[in-house]
Automatic annotation (TrEMBL):
Family that this chain belongs to: Belongs to the aspartyl/asparaginyl beta-hydroxylase family.
Signal sequence interval, chain numbering: none
Protein name (database record): Beta-hydroxylase
Family matches, as InterPro entries: Asp/Arg/Pro-Hydrxlase, Asp/Asn_beta-hydroxylase, IPNS-like_sf, Lipid_A_LpxO-like
Every Aspartyl/asparaginy/proline hydroxylase domain range: 71-224
Chain ranges passing through the membrane: 282-300
UniProtKB keywords: Dioxygenase, Membrane, Oxidoreductase, Transmembrane, Transmembrane helix
Organism annotation: Vulcaniibacterium tengchongense
Length: 301
């Protein structure tokens, strides 16, 4: 049985690596968080009730409960504009947002509305209309306003968990093809009042090469699954693992367990980066040794 599980893990990891047209280098994929989540993600793909393509055409047809967001996009935009004036769409104040920490260095900013829970207290106070709309749509598990200023970018990456699909609703955008997201090599340029939905476990990246700012409503929507046991499993993982990535906007908002620990892991990471600058060969040797030890431990047990 142990070897069957090992083979299933390896097969799942290979499938995730080969999925889609755009792929990470093998060395990077071995250390990517999506590799460790591969068996769970393959289960999500196998039992998905919606297509597992990079983009999902016509989100409203697959998720009619989301229509109030598009219908009220101008009211949502006004709350986002007010947040920007207050300078509350911003990078994390400390090392307490492990999921998006690397994005902040390249200009990306966010304001959390909710994260696998009810609205953050700060969001309920500053964005009452948007949080009330979200409260009426239980399939939206996470939501935030995100900003991509001129000259900013997000490097190619894939998200670790396939239990959701990502919705982007344009609020204040350049309305210009120079500001875009690419998912598995397919480009989409944001437009005010228009939306798109995509599978964030494909490799994707974004750039704003225009001269204007971009603000969108960003939502993670629960992936519809074919069987009740699969839906229950998805919600269990979301509640006990993904929810631990909650990050605060300000004091009084919840910080998940993973982000409470992140500052300690980041201190170790800084030392690792310093080692890479001094001795790249030793750095990668230790990195791959760590992976090998984890695999050996799994096989041993």
């Amino acid at each position: 049985m142990k070897w069957v599980l090992v083979l299933l893990f390896v097969a799942s990891a290979v499938y995730v690596h080969l999925r889609g047209k755009v792929r990470h280098r093998l060395g990077r994929q071995l250390l990517d968080h999506s590799t460790f989540m591969a068996p769970v993600n393959v289960l999500m793909y196998a039992f998905s009730r919606v297509p597992t393509t990079p983009f999902l055409d016509d989100p409203g047809r697959h998720f009619p409960e989301l229509e109030p967001l598009r219908a009220n996009w101008q009211a949502i935009r006004e709350e986002a504009r007010r947040l920007r004036e207050l300078q509350q769409i911003k990078a994390a104040d400390g090392y307490n947002d492990v999921g998006f920490n690397s994005f902040f260095r390249r200009g990306w900013k966010r304001f959390y509305l909710k994260w696998y829970d009810d609205a953050h207290p700060s969001a309920a106070t500053l964005c009452p209309r948007t949080t009330e709309l979200l409260r009426q749509i239980p399939s939206v598990k996470a939501a935030m306003f995100t900003e991509l200023p001129p000259g900013s970018e997000l490097r190619p990456h894939r998200d670790p968990y396939a239990g959701s699909l990502r919705l982007h609703l344009g609020l204040e955008t350049p309305n210009d093809d120079a500001c875009y997201i690419a998912v598995d090599g397919q480009r989409y340029s944001w437009r005010d009042g228009e939306w798109t939905m995509f599978d964030e476990t494909y490799i994707h990246w974004a750039r704003n090469d225009s001269a204007q700012n971009r603000i969108i409503l960003f939502c993670d929507v629960e992936r519809p699954l074919k069987f009740g046991w699969a839906r229950a499993f998805n919600r269990f993982v979301a509640r006990h693992l993904i929810a631990a990535g909650a990050s605060p906007n300000m004091e009084g908002d919840r910080t998940g367990a993973i982000n409470r620990l992140f500052k300690y892991f980041y201190a170790v990471r800084l030392k690792a980066k310093a080692l890479r600058e001094r001795n790249k060969n030793l750095y990668y040797a230790l990195k791959y040794l760590g992976v090998a030890l984890v695999v050996a431990f799994i096989v041993w047990i």
